[in-house]
Amino acid sequence: MYQSDRSTQELHIVQALRPALQQRGYDWLPRLHQFRKSTKNGFSCLILSISAYEEASLVEAHLGVRIDDVENLAFPFTNGLPGFQPESMSLVTPIAKLFGQRYQRLSLQGPADLQRATTTFTQQMEEEGFAFLEQYGRLETLDRLLNEQPNKTVPLLHNQVNRCFRAIVTAKLTQRDDFQDLAAHYADFLAEKLYAPQPTLHKYERLRQFLLHYSMN
């Protein structure tokens, strides 16, 4: 049986990915298990997650984007831990979803699997990943993703409740004419479609009222 701990496997993958990622301005942050690139309004990142099991490990990659203006307004009203606010992200999705898959957990049972995983992630980043991160690092693009179809969930997102919080924030920041309609819609959506608990509904209403009087000047 192939024996290698998670940290060693991660190190092998990181070392293999590093040249391509660093060339694009991404640096490895071991504490957060992610390659990150700072932007003028936040950061974008490639997150590696390795889960160890008796027979093998599984590695999965996620893409994340943070827009500071969005997080500074939305995060305090979510259930996230206050100390995590500087690291919170406006959008996080498995890279597999860019290729029409719900998830992609690659098995690591030997050195050859490590090579296949790094080759897969490198190709996926070149084909779709880097462009995705650049695209959704823009406020207007993120707003369209969150608000273009308000009656539907957003397949790229796992947490549809937090989508509602960030959706009204992006609507406010982009000065959408339909901001108030969207804000009212998501209140109903949270309660009637997502069955959000009362504390969450109260937090949403607090954010909604705050944004009604928020000035960006």
Radius of gyration: 19 Å
Number of strands: 6
Apparent shape: elongated
**N/C terminus separation:** 62 Å
The fraction of residues assigned to DSSP E strands is 15-25%
Largest sheet: 6 strands, antiparallel
Tell me the structural class: alpha+beta
Helices and strands, in order, run as HEEEEHEEHHHHH
Count of discrete alpha- or pi-helical segments spanning 4 or more residues: 7
Mean pLDDT: 93
Spans of at least 5 consecutive residues with low confidence? none
Residue share in helix: 40-55%
Explain what the structure shows.
The protein has 217 residues and is of the alpha+beta class. 47% of the residues lie in helices and 18% in strands. The protein contains 7 helices and 6 strands, in the order H-E-E-E-E-H-E-E-H-H-H-H-H. Strands 1, 2, 3, 4, 5 and 6 form a 6-stranded antiparallel β-sheet that branches. Helix 4 packs across helix 5, helix 5 (160-173) packs antiparallel against helix 6 and helix 6 (179-192) packs antiparallel against helix 7.
